[in-house]
Amino acid sequence: MERAVKTLDGIPGWLSYFGYEYAKVRYPKILDQILNNAVELALNEIKKLENLSKLYTYVLKAVAMGFNRWSNIKRAVEAWLGYSIPNRSLSRILRNLEKMNILKSNDEYNFLDPVIREASKRI
After folding, report:
1. How does pLDDT run across 18-33, given as a tens digit for each residue?
2. Which one of 52, 58, 65, 111 has the lowest number of neighbouring Cβ atoms within 10 Å?
3. Closest CA to 50 of 79, 88, 83, 93
4. Per the structure, how many domains does the chain have?
5. How far apart are CA 71 and CA 12, in angstroms?
6. What is the mean pLDDT of the segment spanning 75-79?
7. 101-106, long-range: CB < 8 A, 24+ apart
8. Does pLDDT of 84 surpass 80?
């Protein structure tokens, strides 16, 4: 149960789904299946952000890989793109991701949901 909470904490629906499925089948590996389903769903939603700007996926990937300071995110994204991006564009993307409750920031950017973090690693 502790692993389920640590793995699925963020979106309560996944934790409820896990509890329901586990009670139904009593299969210890059900957590892995549910996590995989959750990550695939999150990945599909993240890919929809590309319709707004490809920068969303690059920024999410950067944060998922541990580049969680503004300057480090910018350097990583620019390295992947092969060109410089305006500061205001990166700031806008990060602000929007915070408004969407995907990222939070104090001194560093972090994911609010471990499922979305895992999905962002797979971009």
Report:
1. 777 778 877 767 778 8
2. 52
3. 93
4. 1
5. 32
6. 98
7. 102/60, 103/60, 103/63
8. yes
Does pLDDT of 10 surpass 70?
no
Q: How many Å separate Cα 77 from the centre of its chain?
A: 16
H-state helical runs in 26-103: 30-48, 54-64, 70-81, 87-99
Read off the CATH number of the domain in which 36 is found: 1.10.10.10
Its domain, for residue 2, covers 1-123
Contact 90, 27 (CB under 8 A): no
Query: Which range among 9-13, 72-76, 106-110, 111-115 has the greatest average pLDDT?
Result: 72-76
What count of other Cβ atoms lies within 10 Å of the Cβ of residue 35? Answer: 19
111's enclosing H/E stretch is strand 109-111
SS3 110: strand
R_g (Cα) of the chain, nearest Å:
16
